[in-house]
Design a protein that fits this description.
The structure holds two protein chains of two kinds. Chain A has 22 helices and 18 strands. Chain A is α/β, with parallel strands linked by helices. Chain A is globular. A four-stranded antiparallel beta sheet of chain B has the order 2-3-1-4. In chain B, a hairpin with a 6-residue loop joins strand 2 (28-35) and strand 3 (42-51). The chains are: A alpha/beta, B alpha+beta. Bound molecules: thiamine diphosphate and magnesium ion. Thiamine diphosphate binds next to helix 17 and helix 20 of chain A.
Chain lengths: 572, 99
């Protein structure tokens, strides 16, 4: 920011000598570039090599959120980006600060989340000498970034950061790491700022021939299924998918990341497919003669045994990223580019698929989830269903990883894909709390609920301090089964009930832990307390934590055993 | 199965490491590697690669290489020959812009 003369008299200001501007450094250029690019919030944690940036933050319009572990900075920035579609920004020092970010970077990479990671680095002259707190984060992060740079010239800071944002947000989004040697941050520099944020280039348009080829396959199909993945939300194709489903009546299934793309109440939406998918979804894919893959990537958790996945089907593969096409399953027709545009141009006319649609709908009704579990213990699937319905279209779930994550996917209602923040590709325990914080800061008026497990919450429990510090409007629903439930379930069925190291009998009293952080909290012991608990959670300003005790023997159903075909699912 | 890949690579910090890392990580062994002198900020890398298992498909690897920011173009000798003969194929035509 240019310093204005302290005097507010215009005439005097004109005649007064030019104000003595403070020395500007590379670090100021970093901060002012972020401001100029429209960044409002960064999540970070200070330390030696990044201190010049922290110094330059003083007086900046950027809101810096001090987390309590760098991994949480990355997860919070990731969640913000999933909601806004714009790159989230996180900041850490060299060495341990940078290595603590790596899980968060990998998480963003696996789920194609736009993110800018700024790391301090030891001075250029010391790089490569094993200096104090030197790690080659540029090298270490290479497999899990879309791109990365080391800025060596302070004059190029604005231009290179602006380009990093374009790369992170454009095409198939992803994380971009910017390593900043300390001498570059401290050098005197007065670079020109980028004029204004440049809009990211949109994906290319599919050719008429490709659209026609795909449409022809559709018209020949008697049993088509839409297979919807995270690329639909990333490609801003949610409305196009809903319109296409409405026009054609083709039954649809979604991946973990595709949830919220089809309208949750659409009668031809059959639910999630895959390892913990519903029977209606998995059987429809098994029996279909045409699979229309929209922004999904044949992940093994979705496909089960690949060679029997949609085994009799032809494939239309639509993806913004051409490198995904044919990676795991050959495509009979491919659309590389803008999914929304291609769907809008695909008009197969009347499709003679009424019997197929009926079969799918009938199966969906017959295999609907049941919530009438016996006993008076809290039945987590029912509680989650009621919670999401009570929260309505403003509901945003930030999940951790485990059984509770799968119950959220199966039983919650998501009005939009941004309503469901989950670590899908990486499956990183510890995502839920920082992601909830990032989401609630971005959408303070939404009903943001972190849904965590007693194992996962301990991976980033320190972020309760961040929630408290900034009075973040977050609700935490902690489903406590006193175990690493998902691992326990696998041990029960695939390791001869050899329950090895999954018992968390000695968990702390989580309500007391929350109280110690200055956070409102209460414990739910039985089913009759559930309606009151949901009310209290949703009506609280937050932060608030509900510690919910559930039966450790409860499992996630259905379950496709690892290596099996999706059609061979186990049921309760 | 030996395959030759020709890559036009920008002279950027880490570009070579990123390229080699990708090829190995995606399931290929690098038999030979040749880097030309840089001209106008760009050099030509020629690699001979062998897949670690039969499921790996070279065209997927080519597109994954093409996705790297520092890669200007990637060919096989067959593609290069077709280009020289004014045939129409070039990977860029098959790829959307990377941004
Ligand atoms: C960082 C990390 N470490 C280990 C795992 C493996 N893992 C997946 S689920 C799970 C258990 C999670 O326990 P909890 O959070 O209590 O959830 P629950 O399954 O009991 O609902 C573990 C250990 C993981 N996904 N992430
Ligand atoms: Mg648990």
């Amino acid at each position: 920011m240019t310093a204005l003369p302290a005097n507010d008299s215009l005439t005097e200001a004109k005649t007064a000598p030019a104000p003595k501007t403070a020395k500007q450094t590379g670090a100021h250029a970093v901060v002012r570039t972020l401001e100029a690019l429209g960044v409002e919030r960064v999540f970070g944690y200070p330390g030696g090599a990044i201190m010049p940036v922290y110094d330059a933050l003083t007086g900046s319009s950027l809101q810096h959120i001090l987390v309590r572990h760098e991994q949480a900075a990355a997860f919070a920035a990731d969640a913000q980006a999933r909601i806004t579609g714009k790159a989230g920004v996180c900041l850490a020092t060299s060495g341990p600060g940078a290595t603590n970010l790596l899980t968060g970077i990998a998480n963003a990479y696996m789920d194609s989340v736009p993110m800018i990671i700024l790391t301090g680095q030891v001075p250029s002259g010391l790089m490569g000498t094993d200096a104090f707190q030197e790690v080659d984060v540029f090298g270490m992060s290479m497999p899990v970034v879309k791109h990365s740079i080391i800025i060596r010239d302070p004059m190029r800071i604005p231009e290179m950061i602006a380009e990093a944002f374009e790369i992170a947000e454009g095409g198939r989004p992803g994380p971009v790491l910017i390593d900043l040697p300390k001498d570059v941050l401290q050098a005197e520099a007065y670079p020109t700022l980028p004029p204004e944020p440049r809009p990211a280039a949109g994906p290319s348009r599919a050719s008429d021939a490709d659209v026609a080829a795909a449409t022809a396959l559709l018209t020949q199909s008697k049993r088509p299924v839409l297979y919807i993945g995270g690329g639909v939300a990333l490609g801003r194709a949610v409305d196009a998918v809903r319109d296409f489903m409405g026009r054609t009546g083709i039954p649809a299934v979604a991946t973990l990341k595709g949830l919220g793309c089809p309208h949750p109440d659409a009668e031809n939406f059959l639910g999630m497919l895959g390892m913990h998918g519903g029977r209606a979804a998995n059987v429809a894919v098994d029996e279909c003669d045409l699979l229309v893959c929209c922004g999904a990537r044949f992940d093994d958790r979705a496909t089960g045994r690949l060679d029997s996945f949609a085994k009799g089907a032809r494939i239309i593969h639509m993806d913004a990223d051409i490198a995904e096409i044919g990676k795991l399953r050959a495509a009979d027709a491919a659309i590389a580019g803008d999914i929304a545009d291609a769907l809008a141009r695909m008009d197969p006319g009347y499709l003679d698929i009424d019997p197929w649609r009926e079969t799918c709908r009938e199966r969906k009704a017959r295999h609907a989830f049941r919530y009438d579990a016996p006993g008076n213990g809290v039945f987590a699937p029912a509680m989650l269903k009621e919670l999401s319905e009570a929260a309505g279209d403003d509901f945003i779930a930030a999940c951790d990883v485990g059984q509770h994550q799968m119950w959220v996917a199966q039983h919650c209602r998501f009005a939009r894909p941004e309503s469901h923040l989950t670590s899908a590709g990486l499956g990183a325990m510890g995502y839920g709390l920082p992601a909830g914080i990032g989401a609630a800061m971005e959408r303070p008026d939404a009903k943001v609920v972190t849904i965590s497990g007693d194992g996962s919450i301990m991976m980033n429990i320190q972020e309760l301090a961040t929630a408290r510090r900034y009075s973040v409007p977050i609700r935490i629903l902690l489903l406590d089964n006193a175990s690493l439930g998902l691992v326990r379930q696998w041990q029960e069925y695939f390791f001869d009930q050899n329950f090895s190291e999954i018992d968390l009998y000695d968990n702390p009293d989580f309500a007391e832990v929350a109280h110690a952080f200055g956070i409102e909290a209460f414990t739910v012991h039985s089913r009759d307390e559930v309606p009151g608990a949901i009310d209290r959670l949703l009506n609280a300003r937050g932060p608030i934590l509900a510690h919910v005790l559930i039966d450790p023997r409860e499992n996630v159903w259905p379950l496709v055993p690892p290596g099996a075909s999706n059609a061979d699912m186990m049921e309760d | 199965m030996l395959n030759t890949l020709i890559i036009e690579l920008a002279e950027a910090e880490g570009a070579l490491m990123r390229l080699i890392g990708l090829v190995e990580r995606r399931g290929y062994m690098i038999g030979t590697l040749d880097k030309s002198e840089a001209r106008e900020g760009q050099s030509t890398i020629t690699l001979q690669v062998t897949p670690r298992d039969a499921a790996r498909q070279l065209d997927v690897l080519i597109r994954q290489i093409g996705r790297l920011m520092d890669v200007r173009a990637v060919f096989t000798p067959e593609i290069a020959a077709a280009e020289a003969a004014h045939a129409s194929y070039h990977w860029r035509q098959a790829c959307p812009p990377r941004n």
